[in-house]
Amino acid sequence: MTADALPHFTHYIDGQDVPPATGSYFETQNPFSGEAWAMVARGDAADVDRAVKAAHKAFESGPWSEMSATRRGEILFRLSELLAQNAAALAEVEMRDNGKLAAEVTSQVRYVADYFRYYAGLADKVESHVIPTDKKGVTCFTRYEAKGVVAIITPWNSPLTLTSWKLAPALAAGCTAVIKPSEFTSPSAVLFARLFKEAGFPDGVVNVVTGLGAEAGEPLVTHPLVAHVGFTGGELAGQKIYEAAARGLKTVTLELGGKSPNIVFDDADLDQAVKGVVSGIFAAAGQTCIAGSRLLVQASIHDAFVERLIDFVKDARLGDPADPQTRIGPIATRPQFDKILGYLDIARAEGARCVLGGRARPDLGAGWFVEPTIFTGVNNGMRIAQEEVFGPVLSVIPFEDEADAIRIGNDVQYGLAAGVWTQSLHRAMLMSSKLRAGTVWINNYRATSFTTPFGGYKRSGIGRESGVEAIKEYLETKSVWISTDLDVPNPFVRR
User: Fold this and answer.
1) What region holds the Aldehyde dehydrogenase domain (predicted)?
2) Are the CB atoms for 471 and 126 separated by under 8 Å?
3) Is residue 231 pLDDT above 70, yes or no?
4) CB-based contacts of 231: which residues, under 8 Å, 6+ apart?
5) How many whole angstroms separate alpha carbon 372 and alpha carbon 2?
6) How far is Cα 212 from Cα 299, in angstroms, rounded to an integer?
7) pLDDT tens, 248-268?
């Protein structure tokens, strides 16, 4: 199809579809076919300025600013119902854009409705406190007030899920938002935003500007009317956003990379551990920040466990993500596909042994497929063990005992997540306390919930998403002092 014949997705600003100021669009590709399937508005600073000003107006003087927290919650609840009704359609667009399996992406989008339902209930549960002080005749209490306009910048691997992690608590807090989705997966964000008007949100509360990072993302982060930036993505991009936000003294939440250890002890239920390891690295073709990409196996069971793992994975079917029989879909973008292939070469050059996979699969068509790959003979100093591959590539590292597992597990610059497989309660508690990670799973992997804080240590990020803690990221704390003493002291007389 020619570019003119493809569907065109505009920005969504102030409650309406808005074409890009320059009139420019760019292609978005289907990773299964490798072909363009839609055209997306190529936004710039002018589009960002229009969107931010609409959000700022809605925050400062529109009906959103005058609305009670209970009323905000009612509208958020209505949105959750619309999301549940439209989950299949949104999931189909997301699958076409990033190649994630239909079953998984449909489940994720349905769960997005649960996120908004949770924060709908939390909107009017943010409680202030009366604080005892050491000052006589004075009462002090706190107020929690929305920060203002929030910039939300999201990646291509789970677009609507990771948008909801930021947007739901921000709206519950009373903020307004401008979303800049990944240039690789923008259409679902535009369709998503249209539901807000149907749910009853005032115009300007939620806006979407699509485009490239340098052309739309950077002007959004640096816009003087943006108060907070929420970002999920790569470490280097996160660092640049943090630096740009710092120049405007904006607050940030950053959910960045990971190189998470999935640790299997010799007392574990090995069949269950195999399933947990596979879920940790080969679900979503390994394109997840919490991927358990380092498998630490106790030396006494190393060979037997790797053999079980290979037997479980070797027949996993790669193919069309819409086919229910497919177990592993394509890589979401061509640049990421090339990056993964580069890491396969790096691993071999470092001396790692490829015991499964290790190739691209051009026989599956024009899409971007990489076989599920397992490397043994890996030591934790290798690049394949230290750097985030973001693909279906597993590094297996042996360890001797708990102390060795803790040392290896923590010996990376990241600290997003970790998994532990053991039947010992003592060992489970020890590992959960010693591993430097924001989430530790014991005898499970990759579980998340709208009720539970999520975020990382070290270079895996700043702040927390989900749960009660997330709404605090979008609130300012104000202290109010009220004097009950009618006799204001003479300031020139020392008391």
Assistant:
1) 24-480
2) yes
3) yes
4) 152, 153, 154, 237, 238, 241, 252, 253, 254, 255
5) 35
6) 46
7) 999 999 999 999 999 999 999
Residues 159 and 219 in one domain: yes
Does the active-site annotation cover 476? no
Residue 60 lies in a domain: yes
Domain of residue 320, CATH code: 3.40.309.10
- In a 3-state reduction of DSSP, which class is residue 19? coil
CA 182 from chain centre, in angstroms, equals: 12
The one catalytic residue among 94, 183, 255, 371? 255
Residue 250: which CATH number? Answer: 3.40.605.10
Question: In a 3-state reduction of DSSP, which class is residue 486?
Answer: coil
Task: In the chain, count H helices and then E strands.
Answer: 16, 23
Per-residue model confidence as pLDDT tens digits over 406-421: 999 999 999 999 999 9
**pLDDT value of position 495:** 59
Q: 219 near 248, Cβ under 8 Å? A: no
211 and 302 together in one domain: no
Q: Give the length of the chain.
A: 495
- CB-side exposure of 190: number of CA atoms within 13 Å? 25
126 burial type by CB count under 10 A (0-12 exposed, 13-18 middle, 19+ buried): middle
- The residue range of the domain holding 337 is 261-442
Q: What pLDDT is attached to residue 1?
A: 61
Paired with 13 in beta bridges are 16
The residues with which 261 forms a beta bridge, in sequence order, are: 294
118 has pLDDT over 80: yes
Question: Quick one: which of 307, 166, 284, 173 has its CA closest to 229?
Answer: 166
pTM, entire model: 0.95
